[in-house]
């Protein structure tokens, strides 16, 4: 499999971000990303999609959008949509109709920041997802960088601290978001988990102090979604775009917090009597299955089955578990960084049926 690093969910000056698509591409090239996916609010920006290059480096930009009902108060139920090449914000007032419209043209949809708190200190309302009766969406954003920031600050001084020392911020997805993901997975559906930056490069001030809250480049070295492709990117835009969308759709992905240590090289696989599969795939449990995770360096590793921890390993980079039990299996890994235990890797599941 061919691994690439993707950063998704970011905003430009077309809506409430401060940078251009070119600014994002430049920052992505400097961070050695392979793909960035922009998602401005309720507008599908035409023109910027494609490859951007600097020397021997290249990054593919895919343009999607974050769709929500702007007449709703408060404006909850945000859906990340990409791979459509078609404006769908006209369907924003009904989430199920919107999801159906995305599926009709074979696009992808991800529930954005499922749990997003109110933050009066910076005049931010809660934009949590509420309509859990919907179905047919591709997945959910299990880790959102901006939502985590909102959940950690209580005053403007907290915001100022993280603006100047952003490396202290990220610790992991909200536990209730992970709990919801497991609940959805246990219902028998495939729900792909992704990590999103929610990057805006917002400029904040407190008296004489001004600062950009998390520049795009900071996000691009932090919470990324790593994809495993069936073949290497070729540089041909349409072909590569389809490879990327197919990997997202299949759940051939893991979320890596790349700031404490690089997560490139992580693999989670299952070997059965006849087949071998990776994250996002199904395999028969009958006859026994060997689950194996390989990490790029030592970490605390947890094997999760149907939402419950069934095995733990300390200071390991390889772990193996043999089972005949059907279920939904996934891996979480943690590391110490700047004095705290932090989420490092969250795999998509392997489904034993």
From TrEMBL:
Q: Which domain of life is it from?
A: Bacteria
Cite a single GO MF annotation: 5'-3' RNA exonuclease activity
Identify the Pfam families for this entry. PHP
Q: What InterPro entries does its record include?
A: PHP_dom (IPR004013), PHP_domain (IPR052018), Pol/His_phosphatase_N (IPR003141), Pol/histidinol_Pase-like (IPR016195)
Q: Where is the Polymerase/histidinol phosphatase N-terminal domain?
A: 6-71
Concerning PANTHER family, the annotation shows: EXONUCLEASE, POLYMERASE_HISTIDINOL PHOSPHATASE N-TERMINAL DOMAIN-CONTAINING PROTEIN
Question: Matching NCBIfam families, A to Z?
Answer: CehA_McbA_metalo
Q: Give the protein's recorded name.
A: PHP domain-containing protein
